[in-house]
């Protein structure tokens, strides 16, 4: 018996395909982790990028799948909503000897490790969007390429009979953010891989500095500290720990792709002219990572108008650039970011407009604007978000004490238009005792910890650690605790784009901030934000929001030389 199912690609047209209820070819598929040694670990996947697809049997002698090339995809459990976000041609794998032996096609997904027990090499299923299923259930599909066609109207969609497919359900918790994602396009990046953390530190800024990118160990010793030469002055780097790729932008149109300490290729963005910020001007102005979908977005000038351009890191190709629809000419944030959970691009600009762009289909973005009042004379300088809760932030440069805009995107109302508008329960919160150089300028959240940092710039060494709400969905959000301290030891904060990022330590789970000094960067300050917010470790003033001693103790901050 055949049934007609309606499968809708995310933000795409709806198509009809014929599905049957029985299966006709041999073998079975199963989800596993990168090692391929576990089967159907439905409750063990912390992230979408942890899920791999394999097939055949868990021993060498049992029968397996038919040899050949196959397409794969991820949907909701009903099969009606396609969750895979890349082109179907990129979702191919090879079966040989009855076992999955790795990815195939022109833009293959990453492979896991070879499993000698069964001779299989699993293939990563990501990128795929969050399932709408309340039980966080997803369905993996495998179908021979000879039995499927790619939709002429949507390159992500496959058309096939269910009788030609194999499926397996799996779970991924909602709201979990892959390290490297949801960070503003500030200067430096943190690459978290296993127990190792490596930082990529540009030697330049919008206003100048030196060419080159420094690579240093923060936790572990996985690399030899190195200065990678570049042709032009680099202003920003972003890292994808899933693939090991780091992408960096120069002040002109150069985009550098790195693996480890090796510069692999130099690409050219579509940037033209320059746009200006309070901290300088640029053609390419910064880069932010979406490690879940293996994409990066560049904030850039398009003939003197602020805009964006997505870079597909699987194929090293650019999508068409598009201009912001925010007011003014610069238009974009000094540090935009991508929310990979909600497929949103956040851009809080110095015009005090907070633009959110829906990039579920990044080639056809939709824009929503929100003018922000009450910043106390400050201007929004950076975009921030705790992507697990949807709490969005933006610090107000030149404000003193620090003013920070905070909103709950899970309660947001998006009204369509050209551009549209958005509103959400929000406030501009004043952080008493937080006085930073040039005001609250840079911001980063250590995803997974509900903890972040607000920094100054252009010198000074005061920083503010912030504790964010652990839940969302009701009421007006607020920063629940904060404390301001000086870094000390003669450290001086860098220039624009902001020399700050944050991550969750793989060795203990604390929220860690990284800050670079003025370019060419020679020192990184490593600050344990979790300890900084612990009043037992860092005693506070009577006001409750500043270090009693003024300076962070050595148990909370350390310094790493930058080559």
State the main characteristics.
single chain, 563 residues, mainly beta, 7-stranded antiparallel beta sheet, 6-stranded mixed beta sheet, 1 helix, globular, disordered N terminus
Structural features, described:
The protein has 563 residues and is an all-beta fold. 1% of the residues lie in helices and 46% in strands. Strands 14-15-16-17-18-19-20 form a 7-stranded antiparallel sheet, with no helix packed on it. A hairpin with a 6-residue loop joins β16 and β17. The radius of gyration is 24 Å and the shape is globular.
Topology:
Elements: E1 2-9, E2 14-20, E3 29-32, E4 52-55, E5 68-75, E6 81-82, E7 92-96, E8 99-104, E9 123-124, E10 137-144, E11 148-150, E12 158-160, E13 166-171, E14 189-193, E15 196-205, E16 208-219, E17 226-240, E18 245-250, E19 254-259, E20 262-268, E21 275-277, E22 280-282, E23 284-290, E24 295-302, E25 305-312, E26 317-318, E27 322-323, E28 337-339, E29 344-348, E30 354-358, E31 366-369, E32 379-380, E33 384-386, E34 391-397, E35 402-408, E36 413-415, E37 420-423, E38 426-431, E39 442-446, E40 451-455, E41 462-467, E42 481-486, E43 500-504, E44 511-516, E45 523-528, H1 529-532, E46 546-551, E47 557-561
Parallel strand pairs: 1-6, 31-37, 42-46
Antiparallel strand pairs: 1-2, 3-4, 4-9, 5-7, 5-10, 7-8, 10-13, 11-12, 14-15, 15-16, 16-17, 17-18, 18-19, 19-20, 21-22, 23-24, 24-25, 25-26, 25-27, 28-29, 29-30, 30-31, 32-34, 33-34, 34-35, 35-38, 36-37, 39-40, 40-41, 41-42, 43-44, 44-45, 45-47
